[in-house]
Amino acid sequence: MLRSLFEWVDVMPMSIAWRESLNGYPLLLTAHVVSMGLVAGIIIFWDMRLAGMALKGVSVAKIQATMFPWMNLGLAINVITGLAMVFSQPMRYYPNFYFWIKFIFMVLAAVNALYFNLTINRTVEKWEHNPIMPFAARMAGYASLALWSGIIVTGRMIAYSGLVPAWWIALELG
Amino acid sequence: MMLPFFEWMGGLRLSAFFLESVWPTPIVQNIHLIAVAVFAGSVLLVDLRMLGRGLTKTPLADLARTVEPWLIGSFAVLVLSGIPQMTSTALKQYYSPFFWWKMQAVLIGVILTVTVRRRIAMRPEAELGPVLPKVVAVVSIALWTSVTIGARLIGLMG
After folding, report:
1. Is there a contact between A163 and B22 if contact means CB atoms under 8 Å apart?
2. Contact list, A58 vs chain B (CB under 8 Å)
3. What pLDDT, in 10s, does the model give residues A110-151?
């Protein structure tokens, strides 16, 4: 079912036109990397603040209020350029091991952020200035650091479609 | 003039090791990319602050000081993880206009960061006036963005 969705996109005239555009992919990938700097740069420092590794003197609530709009701007560019790359080469990404692992990491990062917002972050006023965060916040920070590192690494590894486990190749998705 | 130097780099045992093995190249590329993220965050926190955005409740000098180890540390990782990538593809780099674009922007960026930008960030804000920090921040963001663009285009456009 998933495969037919990718195949359906693959033959769309707009997908073909973008795929055959000479500068489309370099433009998209470059914009994706630049906006990654904006997103990951802010998230890493946010996570390190939660984990107790950096910015210990800065209020957690202030980081959320003043830095997250910039992070979200980067995230929007990342999502748009990422979707556009998948849209223009669906059958390149569909059989790619790292593409799907990256997707799983992104879902887990979203779940982690959502869980953080629905639980420990509700009492942020009580501990926003603490140099050492509550246990749950520290764990959320470590989890996010690991997941976002994973997202960056698997994103880079999409280019190495052959450096994957043998069982994945045996699936013969491509 | 630089060609013999690049030919020498390409002939190093380090270069041969990276070309003849499978995993070392993607591993250093990934380390490089994570360091890019840390470096980008270190730069942006202070540049946005100089633009009057972001963490405005934290004094500029405090923010710059607390971020500095990450700025320097991630830059060191960038250089170290960049070296094998440069030497193992030395002639490709030499003939790529984007490599020279990137390295010139890195050079200007480093000079700006350790001189004017650092001095501004460490001075009392009241003495700075409204314009100078903003100009420096915009130039800093523009330089490091062009480094990223140049770097990505070495791989994509040669």
Report:
1. yes
2. 55, 58, 63, 66
3. 999 999 999 999 999 999 999 999 999 999 999 999 999 999
CA B85/CA B71 separation, integer angstroms: 21
| Closest to A107 measured CA to CA, from A50, A73, A150 | A150
Model confidence band, residue A66 (pLDDT cutoffs 50, 70, 90): very high
**Dihedral over Cα of B139, B144, B149, B154: its sign:** positive
Q: What does the pLDDT read at residue B127?
A: 86
Q: Considering CB atoms only, which of A26, A67, A157 is closest to B54?
A: A67
Q: Are A31 and A14 in contact (CB under 8 A)?
A: no
- In degrees and rounded to multiples of 5, residue B58 shows phi and psi of -95, 130
Q: Amino acid identity of B6?
A: F
Residue B128 CB coordination number (10 Å)? 16
pLDDT band at A98 (very low <50, low <70, confident <90, very high): very high
The C-alpha atoms of residue B86 and residue B48 are separated, in whole angstroms, by 31
Please give the C-alpha separations between residue B1 and each of B4, B5, B11, B113, in angstroms, as whole numbers.
7, 8, 17, 29
